[in-house]
Amino acid sequence: MKNAKKKTVKGAKEKSLTVKKLKSGKTYYVRIRAYKKINGKTYRSKWSAKKKVKVK
């Protein structure tokens, strides 16, 4: 994604996340994926589908 910003949440088991410092009235697209390190190797899931979010 062009100009994409990444956020890593370690140990997250929640099913929601609040992202701060977004501009009011703007539309953002959000994707997530899981990862886990086992014996020094990182395993990642596929990216989720994009979710369109409009900030009020």
Major sheet strand order: 1-4
Number of beta-strand segments = 4
Structural class: mainly beta
Radius of gyration: 14 Å
Shape: elongated
| Uncertain residue segments | none
Q: Note the beta-strand portion.
A: 25-35%
What string gives the helices and strands in order? EEEE
Overall pLDDT confidence: 83
Query: Can you count the helices?
Result: 0
Portion of residues within helices: under 10%
What does this molecule look like?
The structure is a single chain. The chain is built from no helices and four strands. The strands form two sheets. The chain has a two-stranded antiparallel ribbon. Strands 2-3 form a two-stranded antiparallel ribbon. The chain is elongated. It starts with 26 loop residues before the first strand and ends with a strand.
Descriptors for this entry?
56 residues; mainly beta; two-stranded antiparallel ribbon; 4 strands; 0% helix
How are the elements arranged and paired?
Elements: E1 27-30, E2 35-38, E3 41-44, E4 51-54
Antiparallel strand pairs: 1-4, 2-3
Short description:
With 56 residues, the protein is mainly beta. Helix content is 0%, strand content 29%.
